[in-house]
Amino acid sequence: MTDESVSCPLCGYLGARARLVGPLGLAYRRCPRCALIAMVPESLPDPESERARYLTHQNGPQYPGHVAFLRRAIDPTLPHLRPGARALDYGCGPVPTLSVVLRGEGFACEDYDPFFFCELPAGPFDAVFATEVVEHMHHPGEELARIVGLLRPGGLFTLMTEPWTEVATFADWYYARDPTHVVFYHERTIAYLCAAYGLTVLEHPEPRVWVLTQGDGCRR
Questions:
Q1: Which end of the chain is least crowded, N or C, by CB within 10 Å?
Q2: Is residue 78 part of a domain?
Q3: Is 122 exposed, middle or buried (0-12, 13-18, 19+ CB in 10 A)?
Q4: What are phi and psi of 59, to 5 degrees?
Q5: Which pTM was predicted?
Q6: What is the tens place of the pLDDT at every residue in 118-173?
Q7: Three-class SS of residue 43?
Q8: What does 18-54 look like in DSSP terms, one character per residue?
Q9: Number of domains in the chain
């Protein structure tokens, strides 16, 4: 089944997009241009439900497992950060953790979250981290453009999310069972982001982590 009435929330494509059913029986559409799989608007969770779910997460610097998980994004970024770099954790959740780890490494890092730390610090930043955040974005095109706009020239954007790989396995995919995960990215989606926003992949150490930079990747 296809639907041409709603544009892709990332690239704005307005045309036939294949309709998929996820593991919770919710409907999604897959964009042929950027390969984003997006939950249909009528199934998106309301803000109260989202906030309540985030409050159930056992995250924080006191949890070694959570810190180790975040370090999968932090560690490949650190070699590219200059002394005195200023970073932002975009979508830090109710208990900031990544910023605590970065401060322990000697870098300044501020926090932003639309539910818990609602005032977006002023840029520019040398690095913006979005770890397990972009899959929650109801308007990814707007928010990703905002993130790129917060970067200094040559700044870093570290993105962490689990990409989808096969349409045939989407209906059974554990990552789509979280009702607050509403958009899913593919390697083709990251390639689209790079082309659309002038980004280059500096590091891609594992399937769910990308360290991107503005320009040709030559940091001066």
A1: C
A2: yes
A3: exposed
A4: -115, 155
A5: 0.94
A6: 999 999 999 999 999 999 999 999 999 999 999 999 999 999 999 999 999 999 99
A7: helix
A8: EEEE-TTS-EEEE-TTT--EEE-GGGPPPHHHHHHHH
A9: 1
